[in-house]
TrEMBL record:
TM segment ranges: 31-50, 70-93, 105-126, 132-150, 159-179, 185-204
Assigned keywords, A-Z: Membrane, Transmembrane, Transmembrane helix
Identification of the protein by name: Uncharacterized protein
GO cellular component term, pick one: plasma membrane
Compositional bias (Polar residues): 1-13
Sequence segments annotated as region (Disordered): 1-20
Domain of life of the organism encoding this protein: Bacteria
InterPro entries: Uncharacterised_IM_CreD
Pfam families on file: CreD (PF06123)
């Protein structure tokens, strides 16, 4: 009797419903901290690479392949490599949180490469045409490339528009600073103030719901 009862109970136990497993949240505060460190780290690396482009511009000027004025502008522009790379990639991080589309480390690295390549392309084109024309062309190329890349990752038009808008504003501010001369410090300081205010605004929209970050 006991063995028969045990046999009758086993099918019932086998058919007991399994509790659904709750996936671990990805976009946590810890993830955001590690992501920020990663972005700052690769921004430093690309800044070091950009310093090599700075030296290359000086050597091209010595060979009279590049005018002194254009060489100075290219060298000055590379000084903003860290800022533009860090701001762009951190913006991409916030866009990733907003649209819940994973951007892997390789894709972050490739985006950083495109931002760094901007300065090499600028140097090459500045040898063949006026600096401001070269700057406009390379900006359009870089924004188009990264925008298309983000479109493939996110599949959201709003994400592409937001990314392109951020890049256009960044490159526009840099061009303005390059030509402002003595006013560059004032314009740069005001620009940093505005960027800080925007960053503070978006951090207010960051909420932790069920241990996961979201932008509301």
């Amino acid at each position: 009797m006991e063995s028969q009862t045990t046999q009758n109970m086993n099918p019932q136990m086998a058919q007991a419903p399994k509790l659904p497993t709750i996936p671990e949240p990805k976009y946590t505060m810890r993830w955001l901290g590690l992501q920020t460190l990663f972005v700052l780290g690769i921004s430093i690396i690309f800044t070091m690479i950009a310093s090599g482009i700075d030296s290359l511009a000086e050597s091209r000027a010595e060979l009279t392949l590049l005018s002194e004025a254009a060489s100075t502008l290219v060298c000055n522009s590379t000084g903003y490599c860290f800022a533009i790379t860090a701001i762009s990639l951190l913006s991409l991080t916030l866009i990733e949180i907003r649209y819940r589309k994973t951007v892997n480390y390789l894709q972050y690295g490739l985006t950083g490469c495109a931002l760094c390549l901007f300065f090499l392309l600028l140097l090459a084109m500045a040898e063949k045409m006026p600096f401001y024309i070269a700057y406009a062309i390379v900006t359009a190329m870089t924004v188009g490339l990264i925008g298309t890349f983000v479109k493939g990752i996110m599949a959201y038009t709003k994400a592409v528009v937001l990314t392109a808008g951020i890049l256009i504003v960044e490159y526009g501010i840099i061009l303005l600073l390059l030509y402002m001369g003595s006013m560059a410090l004032l314009i740069g300081s005001l620009s940093l103030f505005v960027i800080l205010a925007i960053a503070m605004y978006f951090t207010l929209k960051l909420k932790v719901i069920n241990r996961e970050l979201t932008i509301q």
